[in-house]
Write a structure and sequence with these properties.
With 467 residues, the chain is α/β, with parallel strands linked by helices. It is 39% helix and 18% strand. Strands 5, 6, 7, 8, 9, 10, 11, 12 and 13 form a 9-stranded mixed β-sheet that branches. The longest helix is centred in the first third of the chain and has 23 residues.
Length: 467
């Protein structure tokens, strides 16, 4: 016992004489606020602004080396925390939670790989969320999804610092050379002997198609525009298709008006087909996102059957359906997706907050999962491994991520096998937040042939900010 006590008092550099284990020594953060050039509607709410949480960390390895890391993410409170409390109240609570997560992360003393640090600290983050709700007398709990969003830039910054410490992309640090535990430690026994590197690409895919969002408030054609913005960017769907050379279109739907949803898809398909005919393009794709607004699975089945009957070619272009019904799977076990998934892959998004929900989703008939950097780099790579093991359809969605957060999200998509395209909504809704990044990563932020040049994400760590 005396020897153990003496060892614990030794400097950290003496206790771990290699670079595998790190400890977070310093944390600081700040916010950036932007107004959208045009509102985006999802989940029944219109959003016209964004607050970015930017996190800086300094880590030290057992051999004494130090490195700094950076993470950034929108605080998507409307998406992560649908509530009657109001935008400013939920945003303020998430900001208070960010302060507490910063203190927890800096003072924890946890050592290990970034994945281990995040796994160890997540219970403390969730407890802090409970305390914030109580201290602010909110009258409702902060959802786990909102806590993951707040914690995500802290986790990203630690992964970024770890890669920079070793002079490597963080995606090259997920094997036994750097990780003490195999995937069975984090997931299930059937992962024994396997490491994350088995399920991730060492180098990013060099190019990936861009998924363009058509929000429920967005004009489709010129006649839909009440007043032009006239800021030099496209405003109708044909303009966007020509401007970016689009081949992938994501359609936001309401989920509470079947006639409107069906007609919206049919109209987008007609306009897209004519525009692509003029361009000489013969193949393109859609995804349909209900943001959990469908009352039940019968609504979704009726929607799919009507699209197939009225626009067979348009139906064939639907690549997947995203989160059609309520995110609380346990409370909605009756909304099974077996029949719908026979028609098109059905993926969970808001529901995916941990392995338990991924397993429950599979049991309920979901056949795909949407990975998101805003839920944390650690969770994203672990869920990517689990979903691949279970042979699920995979996509990566963003949270209207600008700047460094888009590079993070695009890098995730480019390193996960099977992910076919990248969503990048900030260029449409908040391009001001991308200023300064376009020159550094022109192939990420300036799209002309429908393709994002993910080969540009080649720096150490997450690849957004130099070491």
């Amino acid at each position: 016992m005396l020897r153990a006590a003496a060892a614990s008092a030794l400097p950290y550099v003496m206790r771990g004489a290699d670079g595998r284990r790190i400890r977070v020594e310093r944390v600081r953060f700040e916010y950036e606020d932007y107004l959208y050039r045009t509102p985006i509607k999802f989940g029944g709410a219109a959003l016209d602004r964004v607050t970015l949480l930017n996190v800086h960390v300094e880590v030290r390895a057992g051999d004494g080396r130090r490195a700094r890391g950076f993470g950034s993410m929108p605080l998507g409170n409307i998406w992560a925390w649908p509530s009657k409390l109001g935008y400013e109240t939920t945003l303020g609570a998430m900001k208070e939670l960010a302060s507490r997560i910063a203190r927890i992360t800096e003072s924890s003393g946890e050592t290990g790989h970034p994945v281990d640090i995040n796994v160890a600290l997540e219970p403390a983050y969730l407890k802090a969320a409970e305390e914030v709700a109580r201290d602010l007398k909110l009258g409702e709990a902060i959802p786990k999804l909102a806590t993951l969003v707040v914690a995500s830039p802290f986790d990203a910054a630690i992964h970024d610092a770890y890669g920079k410490l070793h002079g490597l992309s963080c995606y090259r640090t997920y094997g036994p050379k750097f990780m003490e535990h195999d995937l069975a430690h984090y997931l299930l026994p059937e992962f024994k002997g396997e490491y994350l590197e088995k399920y991730l690409l060492q180098k990013p895919k060099p190019r990936m198609p861009l998924y363009h969002l058509v929000g429920a408030l967005d004009p489709i054609i010129e006649e839909d525009i009440v007043k032009r913005i006239n800021d030099g960017l496209p405003e109708t769907l044909p303009e966007w298709i020509r401007y970016n050379g689009l081949t992938h279109i994501k359609i936001k739907l309401n989920g509470d008006d079947l006639k409107w949803d069906v007609e919206r898809v049919l109209r987008i398909d007609r306009v897209t087909e004519e525009t692509q005919r003029q361009r000489g393009v013969k193949q393109w794709y859609y995804s349909a996102d209900f943001n959990e607004r469908c009352p039940n699975v019968d609504y979704l089945l009726d929607f799919l059957r009507q699209i197939k009957e009225k626009a067979p070619r348009g139906f064939e272009r639907i690549q997947y359906i995203e989160q059609p019904t309520a995110r609380d799977l346990k409370a909605n076990r009756h909304n099974v997706m077996h029949e719908a998934a026979k028609l098109r892959p059905v993926v969970i998004d808001e529901s995916l907050t941990d392995l338990e929900n991924l397993l429950l989703a599979r049991e309920m008939g979901y056949t795909g999962a949407a990975l998101k950097a805003c839920k944390g780099q650690t969770q994203a790579v672990l869920m990517a491994a689990a979903a691949q093991k279970f042979k699920m359809f995979l996509c990566v969605q963003d949270l209207t991520c600008p700047g460094a957060s888009l590079i993070h999200s695009a890098g995730l998509a480019a390193h996960v096998p099977g992910v076919a395209a990248i969503e990048a909504n900030a260029r449409q809704y908040v391009p001001a937040a991308n200023r300064g990044w376009e020159e550094k990563f022109p192939g990420i932020f300036r799209i002309r042939d429908g393709m994002m040049r993910t080969e540009e994400i080649r720096g150490p760590g997450l690849g957004a900010v130099p070491a």
